[in-house]
Amino acid sequence: MIVHPANTAGTSKPTAAAGAPGRPAAPVPAAGKGPWHRFTRLFLDRIDRVSLSAKLVACTLVILIVGTVGISATIRQLVSGYMLEKTDSQIISQRDIVFQYVQQNPTQNSGLNSYFVEVRYAKDGKLTNISRTPSYPVLEGNVVSMPQLPSNAQITADMLGKPFTTSAKVVSLQAMSSNSSGTVPGTGAPDASGGATDGSGSTGSDGSSDQSADGADSGQSQQPSPDGQSSDASGSSQASGTPVTSSRKTLQAASAPWRVGVFQWEDKETGAYRGVVFIGLSLADQIDTINTLTRYCITVGIAIVLLGGSLSALIIQRTLDPLKRIEKTAAKIAAGDLSQRVPYAPENTEVGSLSASLNMMLTRIEQSFHEQEQTTAKMKRFVSDASHELRTPLAAIHGYAELYTMQRGMPGALERADESIAHIERSSQRMTVLVEDLLSLARLDEGRGIDMTQTVSLTTLVTDAVDDLHALDPQREVTRGTVAFEPSSDMTHPSTIGIEGDSMAPVTITGDASRLRQVVTNIVGNIHRYTPDDSPARVGLGVVAASITPEQLSRMPSNDESLRRFLEAAEVGHTMHTGTNYAVLRFEDHGPGVPAESRAQIFERFYTADPSRAREKGGTGLGLAIAQSVVKAHRGLICATETSGGGLTFTIMLPLGPVDAGTSNGGGPVAGSGADVESSGKSGKSGKSDKAGRNGRKDGSKRGSWFSRSR
Prior knowledge:
Layout: H1 33-48, H2 52-93, H3 95-103, E1 115-123, E2 126-135, E3 138-139, E4 143-147, E5 164-166, E6 168-172, H4 173-179, E7 189-190, E8 196-197, E9 223-224, E10 230-231, E11 237-239, H5 248-254, E12 258-266, E13 273-282, H6 284-334, H7 350-406, H8 413-445, E14 454-457, H9 458-472, E15 478-486, E16 496-500, E17 507-511, H10 513-530, E18 537-546, H11 550-554, H12 560-576, E19 580-589, H13 611-617, H14 623-633, E20 637-642, E21 648-658, E22 670-671, H15 677-682, H16 684-696
Parallel strand pairs: 15-18, 17-22
Antiparallel strand pairs: 1-2, 1-13, 3-4, 4-6, 5-12, 7-8, 9-10, 10-11, 12-13, 14-17, 15-16, 18-19, 19-21, 20-21
């Protein structure tokens, strides 16, 4: 089959309709679905590109326009209905007056120019073709406006007494006179079709071109023809006469629709049916009033839309200014300045609530970022310090091994070999201690290597540590006492923790005995290493109630601010007798101390206040880091502060349990687990082994061997 190219233009495949017989036609996609979808997508994309402020202003303008148009239309409809109702009532109320006027049989127009009256006479109970128009309005320029009336055949019983609207026909006064029969104006004369032509130019029942019986408006108005004749709605000639030379306003008023009422006319004396009377009023005044009201509503509506649009634009712009500031702040933060914050706004507004939430989030992000930076820096420093600390003993081992190899064949090699082996042994021991400490820290970080089910007597641990310090430094004055909380007396004397008396209160706790002993030993070891032998030291133990949970306490950093917050919580707990009981251990020395800017760093791994003398003291910089990890594993806090009069003070807070109403705040015995202090400290394999080890290390020639784990 040959297909003309014009039939295939714009197609890439032949249609299925031209296929072989019996082959089913391919489904045709819905026409217009693709283009409509693309148009919708394009329209939505264009809308998405418009700014939020422009969208809000546009929506406000649309709402104002729709509201103004709706209100104006409603007012127009209400006023129009009201005025139409008043016109109907006026027509009905004038019915009796018109009947009296008609009975007087006037021979000329009465001059009641606002009313139109037409009488159609009846004979033998039926309407005839005889009618007359005793009253009709005459406008400026001798223009006569009359309503289009139904024929006799179109008049029904339902139309009687019910006004209806009909269109108007405009003629001249001369035409009215020429169309009259020459006797009484309005008297009809038979026309060629057998109908009667009334004085107004309307035909009778047979030749009427008037409106239908339902009284509906034909919607066509009368306009004067160029030759001076007036034509009705259908375009037929109504009358001839002198050309009408009236103003445009007069012609518009004459073309206005009419409100007409049909009433049955009966003789009051005999009650005989005499015909029907049409009473009409022009709606020109009503239409003019409605048009004036419409123009007023349009003017006011435009003013409202312009004013409302301007105010809405200003308000929206003012409202969205904080969002622009948020955008600028976010751009600065994205550039790397995490210290930027969103400007303040009242939190009772949406923007203010968003600003407060964003500032909180930015604070957390900045804090997390700084913590991450600190963690990364600590990790780098930790790896570097660990490598350095491990490299030193490894280098010593390697060096002494090479020295032994070189001097093996020389005289006196045996003595020198023993010396090299001793150096190698000391280096390996130092490396072993370092590796064990690193392993302990790693296990503590993972939550392993600690048993929290033991009953530990803190009084026994502190007493043993004080005895060891006496043995290591016989010249040092070491005293003990009970930790007591001193509430603040005024703003200049804040609350503090002091050591009173010369004995410690018996305190037990549930935890890991060996790890807690390691904490106390490391702190006492630092006093032994880094303070003069004759400087005094004081150790205290007691119970303090504080209105802070152990979880909150363990998350606080080890600095002076954390201790101040604990003291504030302790003052609340002391006053209200509520919160948690904490075992407080306090170690005061009067040595050289640590600068304020370095106190928070002494708990970092491999940190030493005097790096040049760290190796001479035998420390690795891991002792206080281990102590901090153990204390936090017990949900406690350890802080380093300055001693009054110079020196360094370590304060350890360990939770015991909720405050009991009968427990004194910082004085009496507290049994954290119900175990006896004496038995928990002096019995059991663990206690005996610790005591034996401690007694075996009191040899003065091996100074620091008991503190081999303190750094």
